[in-house]
Amino acid sequence: MHPLAWERKGFTLAALGRHEEALRAYERACTLAPSESMLWVEKARVFLACNHPEEALACLEIAGPLAPVDARVWMLKGEVLFRLDREEEALHSVEKALQIEPNDPAAWIQKDSYSPGRSDLRKPFTPSSERQRSNLQMFGMV
Fold first, then answer.
1. Range of 122's domain?
2. For a surface tag, which of 11, 16, 38, 64 has the fewest beta carbons within 10 Å of its beta carbon?
3. To the nearest 10°, the Cα dihedral for 118, 124, 125, 126?
4. Residues 6+ apart with CB under 8 A from 115
5. What was the pLDDT predicted at 139?
């Protein structure tokens, strides 16, 4: 089967939540076309969906040199590094994406969320005033 057919199968299986099967399809696609960076990126996405950031990072380490000017590779690598608590490296990765695509609003948002002092984004929100608490209660959020 053609690598693109394996990629489509992996994509479909991942969309159905059948991640282990999707990973096998992407593995086959990557074996048949190891120089296709987006196959490695999509495989990394599935690993990330399975909460396996180390494996996702390994795929992105392969994809990066294959597509050094693809901002999507650097954005996803930033997300993976952030999940691994490697915030400085995550920020650097997103900055590389912005060098490639300086007008990408998602990259700017991602950069802002990874900036120093923003690690509180991973913590649950705690209302700091009575007004915040009452507003959250009004909408059934507390």
1. 68-142
2. 16
3. -120
4. 91
5. 56
Residue 58 belongs to a domain? no
| Segment 109-120 mean pLDDT | 72
Q: What is the pTM of this model?
A: 0.77
* CA 79 vs CA 18, 45, 55, 85, 96: distances in Å: 22, 10, 13, 10, 13
Element (H, E) at 44: helix 37-49
Please check whether residues 116 and 85 belong to one and the same domain: yes
- Please give the structure tokens belonging to residue 133: 């608490």
Question: Token match 């005033």: residue?
Answer: 129
Say if residues 97 and 75 touch (Cβ distance below 8 Å). Answer: yes
The answer to whether position 123 is within a domain reads: yes
Within a domain: residue 127? yes
The SS3 of residue 118 is coil
Let me know if residue 102 belongs to a domain: yes
Give mean pLDDT, residues 75-102: 94
| 8 A C-beta contact, residue 127 and residue 142 | yes
User: Tens of pLDDT along 14-37?
Assistant: 999 999 999 999 999 999 999 999
Tokens describing residue 14: 């991942």
